[in-house]
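Folding Problem: From Residues to Backbone Shape
Fields: amino acid sequence; protein backbone structure tokens
RECORD BEGINS BELOW THIS LINE
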Amino acid sequence: MAAADRLSSRAVDHAPLGPPIVVNRPGRAMRLPVRIVVFNAKTGRHLDRIIACLKRPPLGEASVILFCEVDWQMRRTRERRVAAELAGALGMSFAYIPEFGQTRSHDIGSVASMGNAILCAAPFERVDAIVIPRPRIRGRLSRMHRRGADLLGTHCGLVAHARFAGQRLALGVLHLHSRCSPAERERQMAAYLEDFPRDCPAVFGGDLNTTTMELTSAPLVLETAARMLLSPQRFRSPQMHEPLFERIAEHGFTTHEANVPRKSTFTFLRAIPPPLRPKLDWIAMRGVRPVAGSARILPARYSFFGPRVSDHDFVMVDIDF
């Protein structure tokens, strides 16, 4: 395992846990279009079932998989290195960036973590981490809901470069805060895109947590629940309420045609009707074109009656140059 080229030098209030971990494997035969998948693995607790889903068509033809919330030696996932096991099972290269972690009591100096990862069917030419500022949150969240406040590390995204059919493509993944205001998610997105490479075609994606609301107190959570009942379309078409989409467009990216419009990607409980579920996971692209009709959202379960492997769905699109 090798460390990547660099961490961004952005000044932040919390120190990153370290540079990315990168493992390159020989590339397999590349042909266009390139299939991109985004998935929040919810720690990877159901790792074996996630792998089973990713080996079946159409996910089995993915060239790039952008993961959020993957554990690395965390006790809750039996100390498995989730990104490494996913890549090994699928025969892909991987890059993993730890975001938040804790010292392992039985291994002094070692840190267990949760972070983001990129899996790729082509070897990486370069991998960099981009440090993202923690959001400014009004009031005091409960211990349960202060995302990362009591952990080591800080928010980090990844950018990697790989070649497909001779074309260089920048690949990115990030995970924005779930409970802060839309304005603070916009600030996180702006920081990520400020350091994103501008000299080649690019695709990035992840769990952008586009809830359109701030969820930092019980009254705000209740207000959100009421709005979901009264204006459910807001949560499946959040663009007008999340200024981060303006920053995406400002940097030349588009989410049009790369995502299924007005369809949710998050299922807290299967008993919640689909029209009330929000759309949180996205793919953005620049300098490439989506294959018409290839954008899909696939339920995160192996079979219709089977248990879910995550509360997020698989988001997929094919791209061409």
Notes: The CA atoms of residues 147 and 177 lie 8 Å apart.
